[in-house]
Each structure stands twice: as C-alpha cells, then as structure tokens.
C-alpha cells in the first residue's frame, strides 16, 4: 500500500473568510487513488459545531478494507505537531462506517446534535504527545451493527 502523499498548505498563506488552514493527503496504492483525508489545523465556529478537525472518504471499490481506520490513525500522529492534544470528529448520525472508524481510533461521543448540515455525532479523541489516543477502543464502541 502506498501510504500518503501530502500537500501541505502553508500556514503563512491567508485563508478565505470562514476557512481554516488544513493539510490534505491522498490515500494511494501505487498510481491508484483510493481516498483522501484532511486535517484542519484549528476549528472555527462552524467546524466546532459539526465539521470537526478531520474529514475523510474512501472510494467505494476500496471500502471495508480498513483504509479509513488506518488513515485516521496515521493522521492522528500528525496532530501534536500542530499543537493539538485532542481532535473533534463528526459524522452524520446513521453513518455507521464513519462512526466505527472514529470509535475504533478512540473517539468518545460528546453528543448528537442538530446542525445546519444535519444531525451529527460529535466525538473527541484525546491524544498523547505522540498522537496516540488515550481512550480504549472497546469502551467507546456505541454503534450497533
Ligand atoms: C465512511 C468511510 C470513510 C469508511 O471507510 P472504510 O475504509 O470502508 O472504513 P474501514 O474499512 O476502516 O471500516 C471501519 C469500520 O466501519 C465498518 N464499516 C465500514 N463501512 C460500513 C458500512 N457501510 N456499514 C457498516 N459498517 C461499516 C467496518 O466494518 C469497520 O468496523 P470494525 O472497526 O468493527 O471492523 C467510507 O464508507 C466512505 O468514504 N464513505 C463516504 C464518505 C463518508 O461518509 N466520509 C466520512 C464523513 S464523516
């Protein structure tokens, strides 16, 4: 598996109104694109409400192979370098695959709330200095199969 190709957005560059600095990675297997994941460097009010620090997607043909879980774990390792000791992850209520991805990486559910982009499950992952989650995987599993 080719791991990640990063396109870092320089923090010195200005961002537009309502935008934040972020780093974007592609998940690739050789020359084949499999998915992508973003790490937002900080939250604004919109992201705190329902967007979170990290977003990801995996192409349909590559799903259910552990890619999103792996990519999230890999990106969490990058968070401490940005000064983040915890990160917010959200998903649509009912997005079982994303909820499981978050929970298996130590996400602790804070709440489920209505936002301007729909009903969101909001999770925090608390990190140690190396970017490993403090939470146990089993204790945070809340979504039934
Ligand atoms: C959500 C998404 C990123 C998951 O990617 P993935 O690579 O298939 O996820 P993984 O293979 O790492 O699976 C993670 C867990 O979710 C489970 N899962 C994944 N898709 C699932 C589905 N459709 N239904 C039920 N469980 C699912 C897996 O079985 C696994 O569970 P486990 O930890 O108990 O083994 C992918 O389905 C996707 O891109 N969806 C569209 C975009 C999206 O929803 N992005 C997230 C926005 S918050």
From TrEMBL:
SUPFAM superfamilies: Acyl-CoA N-acyltransferases (Nat). PROSITE patterns: GNAT (PS51186). InterPro entries: Acyl_CoA_acyltransferase, GNAT_dom. Residues 1-128 form the N-acetyltransferase domain. It holds the Pfam family Acetyltransf_3. Keywords: Acyltransferase, Transferase. Its EC number is 2.3.1.-. Transmembrane segments: none annotated. It comes from the Bacteria. GO terms for molecular function: acyltransferase activity. This is GNAT family N-acetyltransferase. It comes from Streptomyces mirabilis.
